[in-house]
Design goal:
Layout (H helix, E strand, L loop, with lengths): L6 H26 L4 H23 L10 H22 L4 H8 L2 H13 L5 H18 L9 H23 L5 H20 L11 H24 L2 H4 L6 H13 L5 H25 L1
């Protein structure tokens, strides 16, 4: 039975998804102060997996998890490891709001990568929006007079690039595989792969972090469920821009947990990146209309 479209429900689900994911990222930042980045990456995948499996088995059944294109699932999982590891590296060294601002360049990178990887056409206006968005990233990174930028900032940029490539792979996977299989295998490959890589520097888990790890996993799983519901109930061009509301949440977490607020350059860069991203999404809607 198909789920009826409902713009209001789609917006509410997407706002919930962004809130849950911001809470998950705050949990990863807290854990990054106690465990190596690859171990945190493993915990991100492993902690969410049980909750996601319960959701999949209760709704779509076990058969929905069977993958069709193994190679693309594996590549996406490896990209996920790189994405989370780079992001955790940055989170340990910069405010959530700064990391989110740089990460918001990912929709622009998806548009740019859709040309060589999906054969899509990007017109001059879209390329201009992509270029302006990258200028916004440079404002946040604040290159010094010696031409250097911060390593954490560059790691977020790498994470956003890995996310963009993984998003393009999702476009290819949706032609043959179910959303359930994509979520389950992404988390499973990320948990196993990062777990194996984390063995040499493994730090024993502390009992007092059990609640934090479980909460991070639950927030990630709820975010994934809410995200799926949002895109099922509403048009992508309407739902996707709501991802930018994550900045509001992480500013709140920064203040509550670390008493940190964005500086002026981050605010300016965020405005440039968000404006270019919204323009890009508007152009996509016009093109499809």
């Amino acid at each position: 039975m198909s789920i009826p479209r409902s713009p209001v429900a789609a917006v509410l689900w997407m706002l919930a998804a962004v809130a849950f994911f911001s809470l998950m990222d705050a949990g990863m930042k807290l854990l990054s102060g106690h465990y190596p980045l690859l171990q945190v990456t493993m915990l991100r995948g492993a902690a969410s997996l049980p909750f996601v499996l319960i959701w999949v088995l209760a709704t779509a059944g076990a058969r929905s998890m069977l993958p069709v294109r193994w190679s693309l699932h594996l590549l996406r999982g490896l990209l996920g490891i790189a994405m989370i590891a780079c992001f955790v590296f940055a989170l340990k060294r910069m405010p959530l709001s700064t990391a989110y601002t740089i990460y918001f360049v990912s929709p622009l990178l998806v548009a740019a990568l859709s040309v060589p990887l999906l054969g899509e056409r990007v017109g001059p206006r879209r390329w201009t929006a992509i270029g302006i968005g990258l200028i916004g990233v440079m404002v946040v990174l604040r290159p010094g007079v010696d031409g250097l930028v911060s390593l954490p900032g560059l790691m977020v940029l790498l994470a956003a690039t890995a996310y963009a490539v993984a998003s393009v792979l999702v476009s290819l996977l949706t032609r043959t595989d179910s959303p359930q299989s994509m979520v389950v295998w992404f988390l499973l490959i990320m948990a196993i792969g990062a777990g194996l890589l984390a063995i040499p520097g493994w730090v024993p888990l502390r009992a007092e972090h059990a609640g934090l790890i479980a909460g991070m996993g639950l927030a990630g799983a709820l975010g994934q469920v809410a995200l799926t519901q949002a895109f099922v109930r509403g048009e992508a061009s309407m739902v996707a821009p709501l991802e930018y509301t994550g900045l509001v949440w992480v500013i709140g977490w920064d203040w509550l947990l670390w008493r940190a607020l964005p500086d002026a350059a981050t605010w300016v860069g965020a405005g440039i990146i968000v404006a270019s991203g919204l323009y890009l999404l508007r152009r996509e809607r016009v093109q499809r209309g």
